[in-house]
Amino acid sequence: MFALKRRTKGEVIFDIINNLVMLCVCFLTLYPIWYVLVNAFNDGNDAMLGGIYWWPRIITLKNFEAVFASPGIMLAMAITVAKTIVGVAVHVFFTAMVAYALSRRDLVGGKIYILIGTVTLFFNGGLIPTFLLNRDLHLLDNFLVYIIPVMFSFFDLIIFMTFFREIPDGLDEAARIDGANDWSILLRIVLPVSMPVIATIALFHGVYQWNDYFTGIIYINNVDLQPIQTYLFRVVAQSSSNTMMTAVQGSAATRTVTSQSIKLATMVVTTLPIVFVYPFLQRYFVKGMMIGSIKG
């Protein structure tokens, strides 16, 4: 039998302090989310009186009814879902395709391409040249402005390339003996065994696409093409939701809904979908982030 190591008083104190610090960090991280959720489900006029911190005083769904009664929010949600799905698919495939080519050690000029790509991690053209470029490409008021400018990321390429270089060379050699070309190897061998890194990049870019509001503000004037985050930004910026409030029928509903409660309810509606997706990808996300950290 092995004797249990006796912990010193200093180690016990350190563990207690460490646990207290972690609890404080968790509280500071989660409480703002809980505060928004509580006030979103509370009567708007009652919430203006203050004092609501842990649980709604007057529970109501009128705030969410007002949000979904708005004529533009469902279309904005559909645009966001479409650009997230299409954007993730295009981004993952295009970045993986370039990463596969750069992962080949026999690629002529591969080191030069990597050096050029590394420079783009630190420097870019800026907002005005980017706007002029997208204008010349006829991407203003175009759904493709959400897809084409971000279809490639060198940072994500590095993650892909690190994973691809850990795939045994025997798979590549065996496929070439059987007559497979580079496209067949990429689509039938490399991508199917790369689910952890694909899920990681898909989560990264999916969160970006879902939360991106700036693109809609700069490049989109057509309200029918604005995503939900741009819609939320305009609601918050205007600090008024009279249009949304009048969409709810009945004077009782109007009395219980305020601009502030509309903002909080809209935040909940736009945040929950991406929060629900994360647990399903967490296992792949953790495994993908460990890529290249252990050699052996």
User: What oligomerization state is this entry in?
Assistant: single chain
What is the helical fraction, as a range of percent?
Answer: 55-70%
Q: Runs with pLDDT <50, length 5+?
A: 243-254, 292-296
Question: Gap between N and C termini, in Å?
Answer: 33 Å
Helix/strand order: HHHHHHHHHHHHHHH
Number of strands: 0
Main beta sheet strand tally, sense and closure: none
Rounded mean pLDDT score: 78
Strand content: under 5%
> Given the C-alpha coordinates, what overall shape results?
globular
* Number of helices, counting only DSSP H or I runs of 4 residues or more: 15
- Rg computed from alpha carbons, rounded to a whole number of angstroms: 25 Å
Structural class: mainly alpha
Polypeptide structure, described:
The chain is an all-alpha fold. Helices cover 68% and strands 0% of the residues. It has helices at 9-40, 44-47, 62-69, 73-103, 110-120, 127-136, 154-164, 169-177, 182-190, 195-211, 214-219, 228-238, 242-247, 251-255, 259-289. Helix 4 runs antiparallel to helix 10 (195-211) and helix 10 (195-211) packs antiparallel against helix 15 (259-289). The two termini are 33 Å apart. The model is unreliable at 243-254 and 292-296 (pLDDT under 50).
